Structure formats: C-alpha cells, structure tokens
Amino acid sequence: MPSLAFVRARASCYRSRRADIRATGFTHAVSDIPLFFGPFRLDPVSGELWRGADPVPLRTRAAALLHYLAERPGRVIPKAELLAAVWEGTHVTPAVLKVHVHAIREALGDSAIEPRFVQTVGRVGYRFVSDATSGEGDATGRVVGRAADLDHLMRAYATAVRGQRQVVLIAGESGIGKTTLVELFLRHHSVATQASIARGQCFEQYGEGEAYLPLLTALGRLVRGETGARVVASLQRLAPTWLAQLPGADNDAPSGVDRARVTPQRMLREVAEAIEDIATDLPLLLVLEDLHWSDSATLDFLSYVAGRHEPARLLVVGTYRPADAAASAHPLRHVVRDLRTHGRSQELGLELLTPADVDGYVAARFPHSELARELAPLVHERTDGNPLFMVDLVDHLIERGYITDREGRWVFEGSFEAIEVPETVRQVIAKHIEQLGAAQRDVLDVASVAGTEFEAAAVAAATQRDLEETEDICDELVRHGHFLEERGLAEWPDGTTSGAYGFRHALYREVLHGLLSEARRARLHRALGARIEAAFGTQVGTVAAALAAHFEHGRDLVRAAQYHETAAASALARSASREALEHYTSALRFLRTTPTTPERDERELTLLVASVDPMMATRGYGAPEVDTLCDEARLVCDRLNDSARLFELLCTRWSWHIARGEIARSAEVAAKIAELADGGSPEEEVAALWVEGGTAFSSGALARARTCLDAGTALYDPDAHGTLRARFGHDPGVGCLAIGGLTAWYLGEPDAARTQAEGAVQAARKLGHAFSTSYALTFLTMVQHLCGDVDGTATTAAECERLSGEHGFPVMHLTARVLLAWVANQHAGSVESAAAVEAARGAYHAMGAVLFGPYLLGVSAQAHVKAGLLPQARALATEALKISEESGERYHDGELRRMARAIDARLRRAVGARRKG
What we know:
This protein is an alpha/beta fold. The chain contains 42 helices and 17 strands.
C-alpha cells in the first residue's frame, strides 16, 4: 500500500510552516570561523551552508541549530538546551526540533538510521557525530562482500556521466542487501556531490495499484530539492501533464492540460524528455526500488526510457526480487526479459555472502576478540550468507546473552553446541517480536497494516494513543534499530503534522502482518482508512487508491467501491488504462454486493459505461468484452427505464459493431436508435440519422446513405445541439458532413466530396472538439487519397496523425499512418516503401478494428503496384474483397474490383512479353 507521507498533498512536507521560522533570535555566542565537515562548509556569520563551490539551501533556524551541534561534536545535547540556545525567548514545542533536524539531514544527505553527521539519541537529544574541523572527508561506510557490485554500479555511473544512458537492475532474494548496496552507492563521494538523485519506492498494493506512483514520488522529491526551480522549469516546458499530476503543483501546471485526454504515448514522451533535460546540468540517478510490486504504467516507463536512443546523462537503478515477481506472475518478468534481449539493461544479481565475507563481518562487529574464528562458521552455516539474516542472528545472540561485552571486550558465554539458533530469518524476527513490550507490539501491529511506510498520526488514531506517545514509541524502535527507521515528516491537508516511519526491511512488516488475525486486520484497516479519509477531506481523491485498499480489506465494501471508482478516474487522468479498468472492475464487484436500489443501479450504469474506453484500450478496439459490458449496461437501463442513457449506450454499441466490421449487427442497433429517436429531441434525431447513414454507407447503400446524412446535416444546429458532444463523445453533425463527403466521392462527385469533407473539418475546428476534428480529418484524408491528391493527403494525414495520437484515438491515428506511408510510397515507389505501407496496415489490423479494412488493404495493394510487386498486389486486393464479402462493408467493392482487373491486365501483358522474349 503506498505511503501517504511520500506520495500525496505535501509539496512542503519537509519544511516547517511555523511562524518562528521568520524570527532570527539566535543568541548563543558563536565563532566567526567557518566549520568544515565532510564535503560541507558552514559560515557562522552569514549562516550559509556550502558543498564545495555550491550553496546548499538551509533556513536560518536550521543553520543555527546545525552550527550549535557542529561546535560540540561527540556530545549529547539535550533537547531543552537546544531549544533554549536557538529559540531563546520564543515559546516553541519540542516537535519543532524534529522539523529542523530533518531539514538539516535533507540538506546534508544524511540518514537517521545510519547518521554521518546528526544522530538522534533516544528521547534525550542529538549528537553531532562528525568532527567539525577544516578540510573535507568522505564517509561511505563499509558493506561486506559487495566491492565488485559497487564497482559495477560506479562503472555504469561513469558511462552515464559521458552521456550514454544506463539501466541497471539489481536482483536478489529478500534480505540479500539490494537497498544497502544502493545506499552505499549513493553515499559514494563522487555520486553524492556531483549528481542529482531521485528515489521512488514501489509498494505492495494488495491489488490495483496507483499509476506511476514511484515515478511521481521521485519527481516530487526533485521538485523539493536544491535544483527544484530548474526541475519545475523543465516540467513546465516539456512535461506539463506530469507537472499537473504532482501533489501541490497544480498552480504551476499549464491551464491548457486536458487531464481527461492524456495518452500513454504523450505521458511517456513528456517525462522521458523532461528527465533527459533535467540531467543536462547534473547527471541524474533515478532509483526505483522493489519493482516486483510496481504498477504497469511504471514498467511501461522503464521500457520506454531504456529504449530511447537520444544521449542522456541518466542512470536508472531498479531493485527487485525475482522469486516474488515469478510467484505473482508480475509483468516485470517480461519487461526484464525484453530489456535483456535487446541489450537495453544490465542485470546485477546479488549472491549470498561467502564464508570469508561472514568472517570479515564478525571480525568487524567484534574487534579485538577471538569470537570471529569460532562464531563465523556457525553464522554462515545457519544463514547461508543472507546478509539480513546474518545481522539479525548476531543481534539475537547478543540479546539472548550468548555474547556479552565485558569491560570493552566481547566474550562468548556457554558453548556453541548449546545455542538455540532459529532456522530462518522469519523465526529470528519472530523472536525479536516476542521480546517487545505491549505498547511497542501494538504500534508495530498497526504499522504493518498501514504499509511499508506509514505516518505516526494514522497509527496513533488506530491504536487510540496520543500522537506524541506514538512518536516516542516509534523513535525508541528506531533507536534500537530492529524494526523501524525514520522517514521524515508527513503533513496532511487538515494541518496534522507527524513523524513518518518505514520498516527497515519488508520482511519485518510481512512477519508482523502474518501474525495478526483476519478479524483484527480488518478492524485496523477500517480505522486507518477512516483517519486518512478525515484528514484529507475535500482532497480525499488524491489518496483514493490507498483508501480503496484499506476499506476493501476492512470489509467496508460500499466505501471500497466508492474509492475504487475515484482511483479509476485518477488513473484515466494519467492515461493508465490497465489500472483504471482494474479499479472499475473492483468497484463494480463490491457495488454488486449491496442491495439493488435505483441509486445503486445509477452508479452501476455509470461504472459500466466508464469501463468501455479502458477496456478497448487494454484488450483491443474490437474486444468481445465490450459487448458483455454493453449487455450488462442494457439490463440496468431497462431496470431504470432510462431511455436517454439507453440511447447513448446504443450509440456506443453501434460504434463498436462498426469498428469490428459487423455491419449486420450495427444495422440492428441503428434501427433501435432510430426507434428511440422517433419523437425525441432534435439532437437525438441528428444522431440517429448519422448512425443510419453511416450504416448504409458501410453496407454500400450509397443512395440511402446520402439521404440520411443530408437530412442530418440539414437538421443540425451546432449552437443549439451543444450537448451532443457531451452525451456521445463526438459530434454527430460533423459525422454527417464527414461521411457525406466520402459518400459523394463513391457516387462519382469528387468536387462535392472535397467541399463537404472540408466543411466537416471547418465545423469541427470551430467547435474545438478534438475527437470530432480527428474524425473529420480522417475522412478528408481518405477523400484526398481517392482523388489522387498526394500533397493534400500528406498535409491532412500528418495533422490527423498528430492530433489523434496526442489525444488517443487509435483508429484514426493508425489510418493516418497508413496513408502517410502511402504518400512516401508514391514518391519512392520502392519495395521498402510498399512494405512500410503494409506494416502500418498490419498495425491497424492488430489493434482489433475491422472498420476501413477493405479500403486499407486496397491502399496497400496500390503501394505494391507502384513498387512493381503485382502478384502481391493482386493477393491483397483478393483478400480485401473476401473481407468485404464476410463483413458486409461494401462501399469500396467497386474500386477493389476495378483495381483487380487492372492488375490482372498488367500481369497478362507481363506474361505475354515474357513469351515473346
């Protein structure tokens, strides 16, 4: 489940908004000599922090607090002393210290669990653990047995710095040290001081995920970082749809972004270009952790960015567990295989530690002791060299009193043969859990339900504890280092600010979660969901996916359905059709567990209709599941006796049958539409005439088509019928004009065809409606092609391809691509150009649509004639006539037969010429 602390509605979570920030009452005596620690320099006079030649943003109070700590390295400074020194004369609560210490750690790139500079000492205070003198240092730490792996990452980083993008996937079992290796790499001096770092975490979602969650988190952290202004500028210029999705960034997002019509292609192109631009000044390291829990949209990004050929100073590092991905049949498996096959990624498989590695760890853990010689073999035997198990097992031995510190020297008590050593890492963790106090266990139980990362405020509510008490318990667990680590602060829309924490390893959470009864899990999920719901108020839609999961597992299926529906709408705004369809499906499943009422039927109908577009996007334009959805929606319409919604539903179903080339079925639906429109509103009459005329055109009844379409055009009033587009998703009046133009050409009136088709485009542009404009451009392009206007076809098809591709209209987009390939073929006349036309037509066919099938096969046949490939051209024309016969789409039959005769004549002449020769 995603962490609310790191995903939502907190663009300034890491900055205090308290009024005391504006004061500068820093009164303790200071030296005017700059302090040096690590790569940093702190000027006590100006209060400025520098890393090399670069300034590091740090607010006045935080800089004063850092100076006070750095002047007293090694000393534990009580909280009261720090408050008195830095906030003298100002009443503040102890919580303000946590805010400013976190700001200091953010500036220094420090960690609460492995501090290089500022260490939290229980409930007492803080200690500066680095010597603050002159000069620079480097504290990268030491990780046993990973020197070669670190070297691999450093080589990939060096290659990325030179402008050649790199993708490295770190694979290994749970506890093998993937995150530890990443941390070591990011702390390396040349990386920490010379690159921008963005990290995103994938979370176990319990079902439907949230699209692009880790990537949005990573971008949000970049926006809040030192180069935030530069990042925002890149997003504004190159990725406005992404800027509009970032929490707290709406005010900066361009107003022209239509979130309801953002396509996957646009989302991926925008973010890839923005990331490459951000990496221009400094190399960018993008870390995506636990990809075995990733949403599908993030995997699409990984494949897309790895496959781009443009130079980029970008290194993407991903971590995952192969066993977990395989067990859940996660799509990551296919992505990894595809990247590996095409040479677009490197895979770094972490191995278990060797006996020598374990010996080195034990020797470093117990210096000046004889323990290593005897203890290391036992540890390796019981852990197989799993790093997490190794560390926890040694901790277990210390806690059970087998290993003790006597006057600064580690000694072993008892005999090694008598040691009761747990067989698995889960058993070790379970032993740790048994030793917890009741309050600690209670907090950790709730935290395991909240997620891998969680907010103290949510846990406090679910345990019915005071927030400060809950934070104290979490801080104590952080200090002991067994279960939790500090993850900064979380700020909710209702003003609640609390500590954010995370489990040191997912296994800790998994073991705790597995020990809970199903009934208690459900209660805790409901309590957590209710607290988050109350905290986010009117912004609750921003955490819909998390709330859907909480209420689903809390057995509150009504609210689960509500938030799945909201999460689906959010996914569609990111053009994540797979996630949207999953959420809609869950919403329907849970809604149907409730009693049947008119209100429930209304919601069910809305969900069924909303599912159609993502269903076609994910399963194919002619997916049979769409027919099932329409059948289900029809039954609900009948129960509601809602003729208006039934009319709209039938129009959707007609479009689907037409797209599949099911002309007879589309005629049946058109007849029902005409029956409903009889005596109805004028706009419904226009829609009915468009549907009837389109069906007649497709079946080759051109005279009947003209009668219907002309009647619809005459009745159409764009000013009075403005609701047509909202109700049907397109403008039937424009449809009458567009199909009418093509009908005129087949009736032998090319000039009238051009005039009417151009009129459809003009009317659509005046409306400013993207679908209707793409629709009209498609028919104008076809008319221009049929008239032999190569230049006109090129211009119109290019506009249609751009517009329909940008807004996600696949039938029109791929039709334009076929005709653009035909234009190239008319200029080149080569075998390769004919193959390009057929490839584009094949992509159209693979989408699942049959509409325009005979026509597009005819276009491909033309291209093969131009290339001199007559037998292939004749085969394509034959196939087109066969499909026309099977589907009933007959408007192009005459042209296809004429083409076949012409090809046959050329083939006979060629045979005759060969005989004479």
